[in-house]
Amino acid sequence: MRKKRASGPARGRPRGQKRKRKSRFREQAKCRFCREKVDEVDYKDISALGKLTTTQGKLFSRKRSGNCARHQRSCRRAIKLARYLALLPYVG
């Protein structure tokens, strides 16, 4: 024996309508270092390197940081060197 559904508006969205997707990350034309025309990311620039790491000390991904591949590699090297020279902490 089936239960009858209460009459009323249909559940869900009407046919033909698509779900809107929220974009998590804003699209930018270029990475921040390309816009500033920087060749190599400087390991002494702690404020810029600090924006590329989480509070735990992990590096943000390219998608999250908005860097191009070339500058992401350069940032990785600069952060590792800054950690080695005790300019940045290894862990939050």
Can you give a write-up of this model?
With 92 residues, the chain is an all-alpha fold. It has a domain at 32-84: Ribosomal protein S18 (30s Ribosomal Protein S18, Irregular). Helices cover 32% and strands 0% of the residues. The chain is elongated, with a radius of gyration of 23 Å. The mean pLDDT is 85.
- For the record, the CATH architecture of the domain at 32-84 stands as Irregular
Q: What is the global morphology?
A: elongated
Name the CATH class of the domain at 32-84: Few Secondary Structures
The first-to-last residue Cα distance is 60 Å
Sheet with most strands: none
Write down the overall mean pLDDT.
85
Kindly estimate the percentage of residues that lie in beta strands according to DSSP. Answer: under 5%
Tell me the name of the CATH homologous superfamily of the domain at 32-84. Answer: Ribosomal protein S18
